[in-house]
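Progress report, Aim 2. The chain analyzed during this reporting quarter is listed below.
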Amino acid sequence: MRPLIFLATIALASLFQPLHAQDDSAPPPARGSIIEDRAAKKLVEAGDARLEADEATKAVEVWESVIERYPASRVRFLAHMRLGVYFLERDRAFEKARVHFEAVASEDNRDEDQQAEATLKMGICFYEARNFGKCFQVMRDVIEKFPVSEHVNQAYYYIGLGHFQLGHYSRAIAALEKVGTALSADDSQSQRVEAGKRLFVKIEDADLAALEADKAIKVECQAASGDTEIVDCFPVGRNVRIVLGSITTVLGRPQPGNGTIEVKGDDTVTITYIDQHTADKQFDRKVLHEVTVVGNGVVAITDGAFSETLQGVVLGKTINVQISDADRDQSDAADELTAVVEVYRAKTDEELEAEAVAAPEGSDPDQEPERFKLIDRLDIRLTEAVVAQQLSSVDVEEGDSEAQPTETQQPTEAAAADTSIHSGIFRTTIELVRSEAANTGDQQLQALPGDSVRVTYQDSINTTDGARVVLVNAKCIEGNLGGVRVTRSRISDLELRVKTRLKTAAALTNIGNRYKEFGLKDNAGGKYDQALTLCEDIMTEARQLGGRMLEETYVQLWRIYFEMDRLELAAAMAQQLQREFPNSGFVDDALLQLADVARKQGDLNRAIGVYSRLVSMETSQLRGEAQFGIAECYSAMADATEGPRATQLYDRAFQEYKKVFDQFSESGRVGEAVAQMANYYYRQKDYARAVDTFETVLANYPDAKFLDVILFNYGRCLYRMDRKAEARRRFDQLISDYPESTLATDAKKISEALAKAAP
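Predicted structure tokens for the chain:
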């Protein structure tokens, strides 16, 4: 089998793609729509600028104004996406975020890439809200509707994570094995590696399916500048033909065998894999793949120490310019690159009117006039700087002894004697003087307060297909930025203090959840205790503030109690939230959790009552979950009862499961409900209907819970129907797909018995 080698580097993808043109069947856009799109786009960019300036509240207001003022503009989808990402990543308000992603994923949006990304983000919202059933459904939509999208990988990834959270390890592995196997239409990243980033090697070869899980494949990576390293690639799962490996790249002189590829800016890296057996019956054939070393240019105006980025420059002082571009480091000496620095000044109203009068006939009257004029321009040359390379210190928790270094690493003699410069960081300084008139012949920039300084750099080689223009702007001001120092930071605003503590508590709770997932209960308990202490400390202040702050404090507390398995306190907190904030958007979450607590404690009648209240809430997204909870309660009652009463309860449970299928088809619990209906048919000895239902679950609900139980009962039904060969195949499927299942042992015994009895 001829293998394929893919390579990738970690790089930031563009969040938004250009809007697609409307199709031919649509009516031509009105003249005003072009103007609206232009104005809406400027507002979106204004919101982006507000966010970059740490004015998040203003940014949200600006993006919301785009949707309100331009409801017919295509640019509104950009605003929805910005808002969705903000609420998801910054506010962790998953329901609010999902509303905006749904708007972007609608059929009104003709940009398929935006639709795919928005659908993926909707699934992430469900995942973060721990609604895994709905998460699976949405992620499957991404895979089916957008099969060539780059977001398919992430969809498989979140499906795998969801199954891992639920303890379905076989299905988690099956989903995670598919991560990386779906390629987008644009595979240009496989031809480039960004210096300083990790180089990933992916080999696909049918022969690798027989590879043992802990056995590595050796791959040689050789840089044209002289370094050679061996990368160990390991299988991504069981019985798969894909292995993955990675190695770090850095700028520097070659040091073969140190586990890092040293490269320079104009370098290439050749990857060699020995295919021991090919499809055309050749042995030990070398398979080569070559990638080019590139760098993405970054421009910044910094302080005098070149450590912090500034958005302003002071008249009468120097401008410190820094450009990072790894592919311009091409020798052991200090390399150089060039850029352009310009000063722009806003035009006066009189100048704008004069230009409008002097505009030639036939020019577009709707074209936006250029509002700034060029005052001064200077070509600059930047020199590669010597930058001390230090090991980044990572904060580690007490008790994480494995993360602590055992001894101080000392530089080797060769490293100590290396005087070459390989930083990829270029710097220079420029004099900025206060002057109204510009002198283009000197090596200074002339400007006035309010002018804008722009540094422009042409990045000819990068991870994209073409050249990039990278620029940065800074305002000219009077004063002294260098004298400002923060000697003490103290949050005096009460609301800001509460918000900060709540975000910290939420972060600690999430860390505790990750610890708990990996079985580190002591570490998880420590994080939960810290989060609980933070919330209890601010409870008095939250009560003083009331409103949203108190509501969020209650929500955080019941989440902490629930994760700590202190169910009575969680229930009490949920009741208090419902009592004091009956219209809260968190009430349905609280009711569901309150019912779950009652069910876990065995108070099934109370749980049914709470679930029923949630089902009656017409606006809640959790009605399907609550209906499924009602059915589970009746099923649990039936399991604990005998005789005719048990039969009645099983019948009632069946009807409740059927309501999930009939009334809440969008619920993530549909697959599980149908599976329970099939089990009911099996108990009633209606094997034909049970088989039909089992087939429906396996075909349409691959993420349903208890698929091992379904396969087991499916096999039993087929056996009862005297279809023994088919029954054996289902038992074998259970053994293969769910080896960790408690039913696998019984399935193996039955399968072996059927094999012996076969004619």
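The chain has six domains: 11-16+32-177, 188-294, 298-353+371-387+421-477, 494-574, 585-660, 669-759. The chain has a mean pLDDT of 76. These observations will guide the mutagenesis work planned for the next reporting period.
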